[in-house]
Amino acid sequence: LWLWTSDIDAEYRAFKATDPTLDEFEAKLRSFLKLDEKVDDLEPRRQISALMLHTGTLARSLADMANRWKETFAGELHAQAFQRLEALSELIRTTTKKLRREVADCVIDALGYVMQTLQEVRMKQGEIELEFEPIMTMYSILDLYLPNILDKEEQDKKSMLKSNWARLLGESET
User: Fold this and answer.
1) What is the pLDDT of residue 103?
2) Using CA atoms, how far apart are residues 124 and 163, in angstroms rounded to an integer?
3) How far apart are CA 79 and CA 71, in angstroms?
4) 116 vs 91: CA distance, rounded Å
5) In this structure, how many other beta carbons lie within 10 angstroms of the beta carbon of residue 143?
6) What is the C-alpha to C-alpha distance for residues 49 and 47, in angstroms, rounded to an integer?
7) 0.70 exceeded by the pTM?
């Protein structure tokens, strides 16, 4: 009954207010998938004495609602994952740009700027590397429950994130 009587957005806000872990998020998406599977298992027709029930349309409607719930919750997870991916990608991009700044003719200010950037990379290295796991976990959950949600640009950013970070670390050590 809750599937069509509850407000998806209100339920998501209530769920989000509990500050769910990624495991809880995945469990919620899994529950929508299980509901969809249960609906698929419904018999399209059921004979009860002289009464013949045709449940095909009801089953399709229930499956559509379960899918809508799954898409809403997964869409919110996607927004979080994308925002974190963008922020981390931008940090790596700007830091790489700072490191590649030319230090011409022993200009002390430019050299100091690059040295400060190197120090920032070393100070933030552990913090940044801890960001990779939740981002990749979010995307693996999305790949499992909504496999075609990512566009090519986002897919490329996700796949290049660790290699861009490794390249930045390599440049900071030379």
Assistant:
1) 65
2) 17
3) 12
4) 15
5) 14
6) 6
7) yes
CA 168 – CA 12 distance, rounded (Å): 38
Secondary structure, 3-state, the chain: CHHHHCCHHHHHHHHHHCCCCHHHHHHHHHHHHHHHHHHHCCCCEEEECCEEEECHHHHHHHHHHHHHHHHHHHHHHHHHHHHHHHHHHHHHHHHHHHHCCCCCCCCHHHHHHHHHHHHHHHHHHHHHHHHHHHHHHHHHHHHHHCCCCCCHHHHHHHHHHHHHHHHHHHHHHC
Phi-psi label, residue 65: left if phi above 0, alpha if psi -120 to 50, beta otherwise? alpha
Tokens in use for 39? 């609906």
pLDDT average, residue stretch 149-172 = 90
Report d(CA 66, CA 116) in Å as an integer. Answer: 52
Residue type, 9: D
Pairwise pLDDT comparison (14 vs 107), residue with the higher score: 14
Q: Which residues contact 139 (CB under 8 A, 6 or more apart)?
A: 81, 85, 150, 158
**Residue 58 corresponds to which tokens in the numbers above?**
């009801």
